[in-house]
């Protein structure tokens, strides 16, 4: 409830509009379904969900552009347990965009499935959980919102009840998720024991004079770090991700690998910078930036090499999304205590996550469309697809080259800024490993392009490519246009990202 | 102005991509006339003095902030000077002609083909007008993508191999060049990627050591990295092996664009980056560069001499011709630099003509082997006579563009003090290349075109359709006009290269 000492102006509550809108939309879906349970309303549900996600997106962008949050004018609620600042709004915009694309695409994917209202509401509940993760300013709210985002995700992965792969993936995801939550919760409790608080700023203060409990705090921080590594699918805690992404319905894979991963990062950014300031952490021998550097190098390398040997496109995308987690980790790994370009690096990581939200979602949605047609999942199955679906193949080509970081698309600048920021902050080796991995990734991304455009069709499987699933097409084109426009339009994105990151380091 | 040119071309590409296959070719031709006319209007209204990178006045300049990262400013910065304008005109001219020349051979997925051609044109224009490194690099890399598809989808039997080889070679080269340029910029105090600002800062010697490298070492390393990156694109021996594969597999119109414009990206960038920004390093490394140039001329010509495939002959002779351009650049004199730039245009037109003419013959005969053909002159007289005229232009017959270009280069390099006074020797050796060119071209013409007709074909080999011959005639006309009145371009080129010569390059 509202803290008595802070009678808040109604206008300040607008800052929380995005998560509130998402939650209300999810509830509305369930209500509509309860009122008319027997009517097939797939289209209606998809429309409501997309509208809700877009309204949340509009609120977050509007509030971000209005500018106060960017300039440090953060709004806090519930005795600082929740803070709406620029970074929270920036990430909420990512979650809402991805959710909008995913629900629109799911409209076709779920044509023959029951209980669609539940599916959409699960997506929106998960999205609102992510939006709350972005505004969490206390380890307690972090944990609660993390669970709010995770529980619907487990159900979503296993949503295709008749598909053994889906069930297996959901079970695995659930078990791993539960274990990581336990580790995370245990880490929080150790940090609480050492510092006496859960609020991030107070944790930082407590950490500064932790005295005899430095060891406890240190172990706590490492366990929290492990919890994040699970959530963001960083090596060596990544092994669940390819299984879950492959087994899940493709729109859900898109949702998890883009939005859920970004949610993990927003919490990691805030918690590590605010609660465990690097200078203080190093003083008690917990150099988490070094730990993240090791994770980043491992994640990039393992993810990309594993992606390179896949024959299945969906699995390749799953591993490559592990690799991209490695790039984003540079945002934490290339920080140094008092480093001159800390905000630049973290801002670049945020911008990369935004671009990634479009290009990776789009890539998985293309897989969803191919699954919808029943063509298959291997490179060979994709052969010659461009002849049947040229515009969709153009979109997929855009995603592939953008993920690889080639210049005409958004992924080029976001990767460049990430690596340049690392170099400027003195971490040349991180940029070098990232650049080599990017060069390698071109190999497996361009294999998809080659299959689509250049290879000749192998069998008769392409005959199925006749219908045009409008929902998936619309979402795909939206993602492709966004990916292209993010190259000329990267200016405001990167500047906003750096400004909101600078607030953390102020 | 330039924004409008780029926007129209991108839009045209998109419209053609969405159009039905039956109309795509004609529509692409009509739409490509807009940038062509636009570039001619630019030429007509052109008014610039000096070199874009060394404080010259620019024509049609736009400079606007685009974005900023960590204090570094990236701008939308475009403009034209006497070096870039001829290349812009060449690009629009050749694109329109190669679109027409595609009507006969391209018979599947037309809207995609013509859409990619126009998309490539737009990015090529971008390369030649951009004056901010990032903007330029975006266009530079974006040219690769349509080329990859154009070879990979519409190419010959080994198209997949050729497309991937092309992509890997040029992409790796770009990466090396990118790293070299970044090292250069990060060691300068200017916080911008504008090419003029960077050039000025280097000229003022404002370089700081980074990563423990002394400024002189750093500059040399950057020069070598960039030279490598551009040399692959040119290409010079021994980095040329992707070129014959790409050319032989590519369909005719794509070969025209590849030889006519894409290779010029390499020499244009060499002139802009290596020789304009780092003249001292260019002069210090003049001997090895001149050796590479001469090697390309002679070795390329010898390779051409050994081919039996007409298209391969033309492809290898491109290696040879581009060697002349490098020789002109390294001479670093008014006529050397000016001739090199002029030769880029001349070679663009002549090689375009040769590839197109070989394509016309191939459309009719379904073979390109010198040993299979004989007496084509009787069957398709007009196309063949234009082919012969093109071959003469290649050999450097006076009053044709090739003669003007090569003559300027030889004048410039023979009298050049570069390379420790060895330039006359290098020039003399390179001139010997002309003899070999004349040899293999005459030999090939003799065997294929004249003598008794003996092609055993179960199809009719007859005159080429009008729309195949017209682009050839247009190219030949342009070659002759430029050969007779080289000042159409040479004057503005000279204005643009003179500041470079005056800066001296340490000569």
Automatic annotation (TrEMBL), chain A:
Keyword Membrane recorded: yes
Q: Which Pfam families match?
A: Proton_antipo_M
Q: Which GO terms describe its cellular component?
A: membrane
What broad taxonomic lineage does this protein's source fall under? Archaea, Methanobacteriati, Methanobacteriota, Stenosarchaea group, Halobacteria
What GO biological process terms are annotated to this protein in UniProt?
ATP synthesis coupled electron transport
The UniProt keywords, alphabetically, are:
Membrane, Transmembrane, Transmembrane helix
Q: Which gene encodes it?
A: nuoN
**Transmembrane stretches, by residue range?**
13-32, 44-66, 86-107, 142-161, 173-192, 212-230, 262-284, 290-309, 316-337, 349-373, 394-414, 426-445, 472-494
Gene Ontology MF, one = NADH dehydrogenase (ubiquinone) activity
Q: What is this protein called?
A: NADH-quinone oxidoreductase subunit N
Q: Does the keyword Transmembrane helix apply?
A: yes
Membrane-related topology note = Multi-pass membrane protein
Q: Where is the NADH:quinone oxidoreductase/Mrp antiporter transmembrane domain?
A: 136-440
Q: Which HAMAP family match?
A: NDH1_NuoN_1
Main location group: membrane
Q: Which NCBIfam families match?
A: NDH_I_N (TIGR01770)
> Where's it found, cell-wise?
Membrane
From TrEMBL, chain B:
The name under which this protein is listed is NADH-quinone oxidoreductase subunit M
One of the record's GO cellular component terms: membrane
Under InterPro entries, the record lists:
NADH_Q_OxRdtase_chainM/4 (IPR010227), NADH_UbQ_OxRdtase (IPR003918), ND/Mrp_TM (IPR001750)
Keyword field? Membrane, Transmembrane, Transmembrane helix
Looking at the record, the residues that make up the NADH:quinone oxidoreductase/Mrp antiporter transmembrane domain are 130-426
Q: How does it sit in the membrane?
A: Multi-pass membrane protein
Compartments reported by the entry:
Membrane
UniProt lists the family membership as follows: Belongs to the complex I subunit 4 family.
Q: Main localization of the protein? A: membrane
Q: Name one GO molecular function term.
A: NADH dehydrogenase activity
Q: Does the keyword Protease apply?
A: no
Q: Which residues cross the membrane?
A: 28-46, 83-106, 113-131, 137-154, 166-190, 210-232, 253-271, 283-306, 313-332, 344-362, 382-410, 422-443, 464-485
Q: What is the lineage of its organism?
A: Archaea, Methanobacteriati, Methanobacteriota, Stenosarchaea group, Halobacteria
Q: Name one GO biological process term.
A: electron transport coupled proton transport
Q: Which domain of life is it from?
A: Archaea
